[in-house]
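Async update (no meeting this week)

Hi team, since we skipped the sync, here's where things stand on the single-chain job. The sequence we agreed to prioritize is pasted below, unchanged from the tracker. I ran it this morning and attached the output directly underneath so nobody has to dig for it. Comments welcome in thread, and please keep replies under the output.
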Amino acid sequence: MNNWEKRELKVGEDLPEKGEISDYIEDTPEKSLIEFLYFFGKEELWKYGKVGF
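Output:
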């Protein structure tokens, strides 16, 4: 946490406005969040243990 640095991101430039999980850059907080929300929406949170982190 001590190494965290703020990043300026813009939707449509740095992040897709809409898209698939694979559209996001690997090993980023943004991709982890999208994965979580995807599985949460499908009520398949058990799969979240198999991705990210």
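Quick observations from my side:
Residues 21-50 form one domain.
The chain has one helix and no strands.
Reply here if anything looks off.
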